[in-house]
Amino acid sequence: MSMFGGGFGGPGSGPGGAPMGGVGGAGPKGQSGSGIPFSGIPAELMAGVERLEANEPTHPVPRETFTQRPRGERPLSMFSMAFAHRSVFVWAVLLVVLETLLLQAGPYLVQVGIDHGMVPGDRKVLLLAASGFVVSVIAGWLATSARIRQTGRLAADATRNLRIRVFGHLQRLSMDYYTEEKAGVIMTRMSSDIEALQQLFQEGLAQFAVQGLTMLLVTVVLFSYDVELAAITLLLVVPLLLATSIWFRRASDVGYGRQRDTIAAMFSDLSESLQGARVVTAHNRQDRNVVNHRAFTGRYRDANDFTGHIAAIYGPGTSVIGMAGMAALLFIGGRMVLRNELSLGELTAFVLYLNAFFAPVQQLVQLYTNYQQGRAAVTKLRELLAVQPTVLEHPEPVDLPAVRGEIKFKGVFFGYQESRPVLKNVNLHIAPGETVACVGPTGAGKSTLAKLVTRLHDPDRGQILIDGVDLRLVSLSSLRRQIGVVPQEPFMFVGSLRDNLAFAKPEATDDEIWAAVDAVGLRELVERHELGLDAPLHERGQSVSSGQRQLLALARAFLAQPRIVVLDEATSNLDLRSELRVEQALDRLLEGRSALLIAHRLSTAMRADRIIVVDESGILETGSHTELLAAQGRYADMFATWSAHT
Ligand SMILES: Nc1ncnc2c1ncn2[C@@H]1O[C@H](COP(=O)(O)OP(=O)(O)OP(=O)(O)O)[C@@H](O)[C@H]1O
């Protein structure tokens, strides 16, 4: 079997391998029997797909666009989210008021029906009251339906904008944030936190307003019926209700904080296990992993159990208080009816209104849960949005013009943590068109040099200059556009080969892509796949070999035609044929360009114009391969050891 036997995606490519770009990009239309499931749309379904596409709603382009510097937007709050969609918000509020008024018309109409219809025996009034009731119910239903429509829109728009704002912010953050923060925690922010807010905006806030307004309205109505009766009944129940509500608020604050933290920890563990699935399987860690995950889910379960427990005390507790209030009303109000101080209709309306006073309390329990979740989510998201990128673009950046490719490190000091410097006073000059290879023991800081050139981090002291311009002064996009980076572990995205190759130059033509494919010697492999450049790649490029990934990364860098190449060589061992291919591809990529090669293989270092040998203390030796061999120093020792092993 040939080295590239499996090809891209291989025969087992599944739906995950569909190229980026939605239906339109899902391979040649109508192609079937290609051997790759779901790679195309069968001809017989095409008409249906076109019909569906014609009926697709068009979405306005969101206002959010990407900027390198944070835009200084106001801190996130529920109010600012709603305010951004104020016309929808105002409509929702008006409808909430209308809905509340209509819902409370019922008990009043019952009172009219009894006192002015039943008691005097006036059928006309009775009919009018009953018809009024029906009209108020229908109008209430229409108002509720319109309100739900408005709040649904508000929730969808506000969370769509929030998702884009958070995603844009994540794109802006520097590498140290991704080292410190777990991927699972970030996923939780984008999933359950934003969903909690969506739910709150869709139903929670409006319901909160409906129920709160209802309680207020009912209180006013109760007092208008009979001040004494209203005061006695409410004095009996409200203090108790208030005390239990304050207790519940405190307990649920703790509960929902715990829920947030434990769900984030659970997702972190899940995402790490998924990303490390190969290592987990290879090292037989599945058992231990399940035990670990059980602990995380256990903590999440306990947090849920706690919130369930307090809700179980609060919900029925408020019910009991309500029922006790009702009993008191029956006794006190009943005596007033007997003394002719209150009509039967008024007492009935009073009972119904008191019931309407307690129903919101029950609802508010659930709503408070939603509110707590939304509030916790806003706090977490606000914290995330407040993180400042450590690599900040200059307020007035200059666009780096087409560079010659001179790179200078001037007295550079850098450490990931302040207490542990990695680079100490590094001075290095790479002339335009020169290739410099950096060799040295693992952990010496070679990759760190590469990261500083592309401004993934900034030096703590000193300067890095390209063509004499300090990197801190130039716009990040003009800098990165001119540097081709080949990282140690090339990353491939889900999508087609074309999308992956043209990643740094999306506007590349097919001819340019094929030229890059030729430069790394992959034409035969691409042509062998029936979909050619449309061949799907899987997540993280898992469906191609590590050698192929390296070649693809070289082709990707080649395609962008950068002036400067920064290559962090992969440490993985390649077989001789793959190594040869990679080295040939490298020669093509480096032709006429300035390059900093972090070389793990001395065979790569030997190809450079100049080699620098580094260790933890800094640059030890510098010179060409022959000069360094002649100097009989560290490089000569490394070369002797390497030659003996190859
Ligand atoms: N993101 C990080 N946060 C904290 N420390 C880091 C980080 N990345 C690297 N380091 C530390 O900085 C030092 C230099 O790392 P670097 O990756 O530059 O080494 P290297 O010379 O490229 O090693 P290798 O040859 O193994 O790739 C190491 O001690 C490493 O532990």
UniProtKB/TrEMBL annotation:
Name by which UniProt lists this protein: ABC transporter ATP-binding protein
MF (Gene Ontology): ABC-type transporter activity; ATP binding; ATP hydrolysis activity; ATPase-coupled lipid transmembrane transporter activity
SMART domains, A to Z: AAA
Pfam family, one: ABC_membrane
Listed Gly residues bias regions: 1-33
Region: Disordered, residue numbers: 1-34
Domain ABC transporter: 407-641
Entry's localization field: Cell membrane
Lineage: superkingdom: Bacteria
Record PROSITE patterns: ABC_TM1F (PS50929), ABC_TRANSPORTER_1 (PS00211), ABC_TRANSPORTER_2 (PS50893)
InterPro entries the record matches: AAA+_ATPase (IPR003593), ABC1_TM_dom (IPR011527), ABC1_TM_sf (IPR036640), ABC_transporter-like_ATP-bd (IPR003439), ABC_transporter-like_CS (IPR017871), P-loop_NTPase (IPR027417), Type_1_exporter (IPR039421)
Keywords: ATP-binding, Cell membrane, Membrane, Nucleotide-binding, Transmembrane, Transmembrane helix, Transport
CDD domains: ABC_6TM_Rv0194_D2_like
UniProt topology in membrane: Multi-pass membrane protein
Domain spans labelled ABC transmembrane type-1: 90-373
Family, per entry: Belongs to the ABC transporter superfamily. Lipid exporter (TC 3.A.1.106) family.
